[in-house]
Specification:
The chain has 124 residues and is mainly α. Helix content is 60%, strand content 11%. The protein has a single domain, classed as Winged helix-like DNA-binding domain superfamily/Winged helix DNA-binding domain (Arc Repressor Mutant, subunit A). The longest helix is centred in the C-terminal third of the chain and has 35 residues.
């Protein structure tokens, strides 16, 4: 089993699994890095690609992904000013790691959906 037990705040802060996964396994981060897989995109294009994300949430997630080194932000002073985002080398390795999970999710969705329905019927 992976070493995931942390009983103190210090152990939690030093746990690489908790530190890394906490910032890449949310609802939006994988979708954003998948959207950037084919190359740089401007903010508005990313927002359209993801679809159901607000401007504020996209901004927060882009900043977090940039802070952790998964993407780079480039500002072209224009005019007009253009900002684009691109996966870094580390970000491309993240996409490679997430793709099998995404494929598993696609394959497993019918079974998960069935399990949810059965659970809801049992518990209501």
């Amino acid at each position: 089993m992976l070493q995931i037990t942390a009983t103190t705040d210090e152990e939690q802060a030093l746990c690489p699994i908790r530190n890394v996964l906490a910032n890449v396994n949310g609802k939006w981060q994988p979708l954003i890095v998948f959207a950037l897989e084919d190359g740089p995109q401007r903010f508005s294009t990313l927002r359209r690609t993801v679809g159901d994300i607000t401007q504020r949430v996209l901004t927060e997630n882009l900043r977090s992904l940039e802070r952790d080194g998964y993407l780079t932000r480039t500002v072209n002073p224009g005019p007009p000013v253009e900002v684009s985002y691109e996966l870094s080398k580390l970000g491309r390795t993240l996409v490679a790691a997430l793709k099998p999970l995404a494929a598993w999710a696609e394959r497993s969705y019918p079974a998960v959906k069935k399990a949810r329905i059965e659970y809801d019927q049992r518990t209501t």
